[in-house]
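Worked problem 6 (solution included).
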Amino acid sequence: MRRKIFAALAICGMLGVSSAYAAVVDLVNGDSGTINGAIFEWTPEQPTGTGVIQPFVRIQATGTESGFNTSAVPVPLDGKPGTWTHDLLLSDVPVVDIGGTSYLQFLLDINQDNAEGDNLLTMHLFQIYLGATGGATNVAGLGTLIYDMGAGNSVELDYDRNTGSGSGDMFAYVPTSLITGTNTFLYLYSAFGNPNASNDGFEEWAVIGAPTPPPIPEPGTMILLGAGFLFLAIYGKRRSNNA
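Solution. The predicted structure is:
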């Protein structure tokens, strides 16, 4: 039996057949999948507005495109300059619980042509780095690589699953257990276009964070506040009676 197995492996080697298969998350026909421990999940349209979606990097080029968030000027690779591409602190990334495991949460919004077949886009690179400083100017300066989707792996995206740009297309969840060291700057490095090419506007990564609500007064504070208003009302009425 062993000889047959070894013979089969030898034949596969001669034919160039690999025992390893590329991992592909299909968000065109499916809703989620995992690659190397990270979750990639299609999302219905997300609410937008100031303080809700906070972009940190925009990437744009025709065919293939790549880039990472940084406040460096000029912006490296295919990153778009402007206020929406900048350094990002690890502490600014939301942490969510999925099935008892905590993950860093990132939102991706893509832009593609609506024509038949042109609506598809491939993300063929996704990496997360932690750096000691901001303003990186090249990939070598991003810091410590804590997550890598891996060469040959990909996520297939469909622009037409949601209505236009700005509404979000995918959540990427990276386990917080991968965080190491004391570096405070997070860099997200991604690339798109192989095999389904980029053909329209920019791709945008963002974090979700609602504005901090005003603090709710403690019950004791509310009582004191009410007593103060009552005193002012009585004092004002007495003054009007004595006038």
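Discussion: Helices lie at 2-15, 219-242.
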